[in-house]
Design brief:
The protein is an alpha+beta fold. The chain has one domain: Beta Barrel (OB fold (Dihydrolipoamide Acetyltransferase, E2P)). It has one helix at 2-24; strands at 36-43, 49-54, 59-62, 74-81, 95-104.
């Protein structure tokens, strides 16, 4: 029994280490992976907080955005989907999106 616990603990630790390394892995060509270039912007006028501005100047309102990305004029790669049902919001400056993944450029 004790050997099984030690084995499972070692296996779990190995799995966690592998998962962390996989998260650190850089994507060599984000555009080929479905990401688009964008810029994080702070929208002051409509009390919207941080939005994502695409290259064509369209603005997106993310469903979630971690604090690491809440920096004005931060260049990012973003992959997103449109929600099935748009959320109720007072912000009309951008289109609501679900963030699939976001990376700093």
């Amino acid at each position: 029994m004790k050997k099984n616990i030690i084995f499972l603990s070692a296996l779990f630790i190995s799995f966690i280490s592998f998962a962390q390394e996989a998260n650190k892995k850089k994507i060599s060509n984000p555009a080929k992976e479905g990401y688009v270039k964008a810029l994080i912007i702070k929208e002051e006028l409509e009390n919207c907080g941080f939005l994502i501005q695409l290259k064509d100047k369209k603005k997106l309102m993310p469903d979630v955005l971690s604090d690491d990305f809440k920096k004005n004029k931060l260049k990012v790669w973003v992959k997103y989907t449109l929600p099935k049902t748009p959320p109720n919001t007072t912000c009309m400056a951008g289109k609501s999106v679900n963030i699939v993944s976001i990376l700093k450029r």
